[in-house]
């Protein structure tokens, strides 16, 4: 391939400073080094995690940087020692790596691989602690080990999930195919919370706090697991309209009640729910989500990401009497091993994907895309990489 081993100059949306509009720039992307993969990004989606770092509230946020962590693309070239993917492979970059060698990976109990975290947490690559992005010699930080708001990105090979390419690569099919993958990636956080972390059984009563994209994916997972009652809780009653399509069959707006929301739920469920999921990132809602669980067995899963420095609290008696408090990152899915499996489920139409995409724009419109994301009625904005 002509670009192999060369610096590629391409377009990327650069966050120069917190809270300032992203700027489409010509960025130089260095070739991948040992254990690295350079990917031509075809589609990327936006997520609140990008917005959070961009806002400047994320203490780990580094500027200037290239944000973005939900995407699908094609391998352009690989560095020395990379054996699992090769140029032309269809891939999804994953912010949660899976090295299969560290003690986390080997434990079989968690997806929190530790291999590249020290480097990705500070916006560089592991090999030489440098960035592969620069503008006229000035380094631009990576973000979450993915940086997908760029037409080309370099990631660690342990962070790349290879996807089965669908047979006839007719242009349109490729477009739709990748199109859907972008969303697939966020979606599985919700599904994983239900299938891997909580292990919801048929007939369960489930409460979901926050009916954004993540909450809807939890609802879909709960429905697929056979939950009988799926109670959605949101301060925006309009959210119930969409949520019904994803399996939510009861709705409570905490603002309609004088009593604390956990008490309202306990009253309506004969003592509490079997499973609850906090999909907002609000620590007082996390407490409510635990306390609305049934004594003896109720399990509450924290999916939402609270602002840095926040703490959760409850009376220890809540746990002594059998409630369980859990958390999940990346849905508990092992990235490289299980992302392809999820894609397969999608192809077999076992899980919804298309329904989450409410807007399609291009990289050039990325600032508009962020505005849309903060509006009601928007689930996922997918960007193609044209400018
Ligand atoms: N654990 C993970 O792996 C992971 C991955 C991605 C995102 N997240 C987190 O999941 C959370 C949800 O993400 P999203 O994209 O669905 O967000 P979103 O903003 O689209 O949805 C949040 C919903 O919560 C509702 N809400 C806000 N405050 C509320 C309150 N006090 N009571 C009831 N409802 C309330 C809002 O009206 C909205 O509908 C975020 O914290 C995000 O950072 C976690
Ligand atoms: Zn590992």
UniProtKB/TrEMBL annotation:
Domain Alcohol dehydrogenase-like C-terminal residues, every copy: 214-343
GO biological process, any: small molecule metabolic process
E.C. number: 1.1.1.284
Compartment annotation: Cytoplasm
Main location: cytoplasm
Alphabetized Gene3D superfamilies for the sequence: Medium-chain alcohol dehydrogenases, catalytic domain (3.90.180.10), NAD(P)-binding Rossmann-like Domain (3.40.50.720)
Keywords, in A-Z order: Cytoplasm, Metal-binding, NAD, Oxidoreductase, Zinc
Catalytic activity annotation: S-(hydroxymethyl)glutathione + NAD(+) = S-formylglutathione + NADH + H(+); a primary alcohol + NAD(+) = an aldehyde + NADH + H(+); S-(hydroxymethyl)glutathione + NADP(+) = S-formylglutathione + NADPH + H(+); a secondary alcohol + NAD(+) = a ketone + NADH + H(+)
Family: Belongs to the zinc-containing alcohol dehydrogenase family. Class-III subfamily.
Protein's recorded name: S-(hydroxymethyl)glutathione dehydrogenase
Organism: Penstemon smallii
Phylogenetic placement of the source organism: Eukaryota, Viridiplantae, Streptophyta, Embryophyta, Tracheophyta
